[in-house]
Amino acid sequence: MLLRFVIIGVGNRADYLGYIWQAAAIQVRVSMPEIFGNYISWLLIPKDLTISHTFPANLLEVFLSLLIRIDSSGNTTALFEEISFVFPLLYASLAIFFAYIFFKRIPLLFFSISWVVITILPVSNIIPQGASLAERFLYIPSYGYILFLGFLIYNSFKYLPQFFVFISILITSLYTYQTINRNFDWRDEATIWESALKVDPFSPLALRALANGYVKRDELDKGIELYKRAIEVTTANGQLNSDLGLAYEKKGDIQQAIDLQYKALEINSIYQPAHVILGNIYLKQKKFDIAEEEYKKALEIIKDDPETLLYLGNLYFEKGEYDNALETYRKGFEVGSDISSTSYQIAYQIGLSYIKQEKYKEAVEVFKKSLILNPKQQEVLEQLRKIEELMTAKGITHHDRLSQPELEKLIKKCGIWAYSSHFYE
């Protein structure tokens, strides 16, 4: 925990925004006995393994959730948010206390139990995490369990050797079967989420992830069906409606796509992607004013978002407002990351804008930056060839070299030999 949260500086793996997410964080913390119980049961009998786990709320969780929802902006919420981290520590302390009973009599048992508890602590939501329950969190704790199990089998073997041989074979066989089975589940993105739905057919996360996969593979009807199922099993969810709208857009049902984006915004007025998607749809329809309004709404929610600035710049480019386009692109390039796909796309669009303004030298320099960010852009190389042809035809000097007419005059005057080269090499 010290390495992760202090030295590396990695805090929450997911944002907890608003009282609903505060409630979720607290509910998870007070549910740690149930979560610890799940971890122990998986170590004993590894069944119902899945990438997406859910568990029912207990009475304490429901009570705290209702309390927080009533007083979402008052001191009560802040108080519970501040003290709720005590719950996981309390549960872990109790476990270690009972383990300490074995310390003097059986030190190895104390060590193995403490190992399991202490190595689970970093993912026990003392600091809220993106996942409250996940099998991968057992990789390190399982060493303590194996030590515990080995101790029991070794010390009990002399009393009931045949029984414990049977138990050892049974446990080994069970783990071997699950290891092979889970490798088949993890074969690709589709199989892992299909296996998750077999364990929990109503998991919104699994339904959405599998739907995303179908849509990427253009199996749109399957994707749409799964999005609808996910919407049915959740409370109002703007993201799911927006995803469903994207699937309908890809299918060609534009009006349904638009309606679902507006529905997403009715559910969550600050769901920024819905505004961006609406802007993209209206831009394709040449409804520039409406598209511009949607992009600006998106930028009000996430200021200086590079992707939104790219789309807004594209809108100005389509309208022929190249100065506005360049200003918008430059802003997006400044705030974007050098390793993001958006940065090289913005650089490419800046280059195209310079070509439209016949600023060929500036275009060349920007295209070079775009190639540094992504060397595999064939379209950039093609644009550089076109620029060379245009500059040569217009007798424009590039890279401080002489133009062809100037070079010919120099050769005649001075009697020297010279040659030109491709400036993009």
* Element-level helix/strand string: HHHHHHHHHHHHHHHHHHHHHH
Q: How many distinct helices? A: 22
The whole-angstrom Rg is 30 Å
Uncertain regions: pLDDT < 50 for 5+ in a row?
1-24, 57-85, 416-425
Provide structural commentary:
With 425 residues, the protein is mostly helical. Helix content is 71%, strand content 0%. α2 (18-30) runs antiparallel to α4 (59-70), α12 (220-232) runs antiparallel to α13 (238-251) and α18 (322-335) packs antiparallel against α19. Residues 1-24, 57-85 and 416-425 have low confidence and may be disordered.
Could you outline the blueprint of secondary structure elements for this entry?
Blueprint: H1 2-8, H2 18-30, H3 32-44, H4 59-70, H5 75-83, H6 86-100, H7 107-120, H8 141-156, H9 161-185, H10 189-199, H11 204-216, H12 220-232, H13 238-251, H14 254-267, H15 272-284, H16 288-301, H17 306-319, H18 322-335, H19 341-356, H20 360-373, H21 378-393, H22 404-414
Helix pairs in contact: 2-4, 6-7, 7-8, 10-11, 11-12, 12-13, 13-14, 13-15, 14-15, 15-16, 15-17, 16-17, 17-18, 17-19, 18-19, 19-20, 20-21
